[in-house]
Amino acid sequence: MTREAQIAFIGGGNMARSLIGGLITDGYPADRIVVSEPDADRRDRLSAELGVQATEDNTAAAQGAEAVILAVKPQVLRGVAEALGPTIRQQGAVAVSIAAGVRLGDLERWLGDSTPLVRTMPNTPSLVGSGATALIANAAASTAQCNLAERLLRAVGQTRWLDTEGQMDAVTALSGSGPAYFFLIMEALEDAGAELGLDRETARLLTLETALGAARMALEAEDTPAQLRRRVTSPQGTTEQALEVLEDADLRGALQRAARAAAERADELGNLLGEQ
Q1: CB neighbour burial string for 16-52, b if at least 16 within 10 angstroms, e if fewer
Q2: What would you report as the CA-atom Rg of the chain, rounded to the nearest whole angstrom?
Q3: CA–CA separation, 210 vs 206, rounded Å?
Q4: 159 and 66 both lie in a single domain
Q5: Phi/psi of residue 44, nearest 5 degrees
Q6: Are 85 and 49 part of one and the same domain?
Q7: Within 10 A of 150 (CB to CB), how many other CB atoms are there?
Q8: What distance in Å separates the CA atoms of residue 140 and residue 185, rounded to the nearest whole number?
Q9: Do 44 and 82 reside in the same domain of the chain?
Q10: In terms of pTM, does the model score above 0.70?
Q11: 207-225 residue pLDDT tens
Q12: What is the C-alpha separation between 151 and 232, in angstroms, rounded?
């Protein structure tokens, strides 16, 4: 029987916890996972609830690991990476970053040249096992290391490899910031339902179940969202009337402008993080 790779998580926050929980649910052995976390209460909870080893020492956690997941805040990643670089390089591990905005070139500079790296961009629905994660690797990462990184992120949702790192800003704008766009739409629809006479609880339930149902239909159908929209829009009906109002308000254009603004800000933040 093949032994599973030893995995170290540097940082035990919400995203790391969701990844660990997803891995264990998928059958990954908890005794092959080590987490470093400075907060003692959080360490105790991780050990008690997930059965993993927990320490406050980053280097001790990374010792012997085949994959080191960098799950700290982007603002502190440089110091963490520079301290861990020698250990990661010495044992030939792959570093997997889930820190938003930090580019491969900066990670290579901090960890050391020729360090195998995979940069990922998970989104917040990963916390409930419905994430969408984009990945990009540097030239030093082997196929086996890329497969291991992908397996880790698949534990909390769908994964997609990018052709170029430049696409990561678009990912940030679409799936990274995207949940907030949908939350705003849900908020507006709930308000509309209340204005039309429904109580808040009913308006919220109908809004959320409709959003969930529409997403499931789009995921499971062979048709595109545009085709699905046409199928549920009867001529001269209520849906057609509502969609005309949304089109007149330029909802499409607003969403495209929003995504463009998010992508531009992602690029700016990448520049700032790299200058630390």
Answers
A1: bbbbbbbbbeeebeeebbbbbbeeeebbeebbeebeb
A2: 21
A3: 6
A4: yes
A5: -60, -40
A6: yes
A7: 18
A8: 42
A9: yes
A10: yes
A11: 999 999 999 999 999 999 9
A12: 37
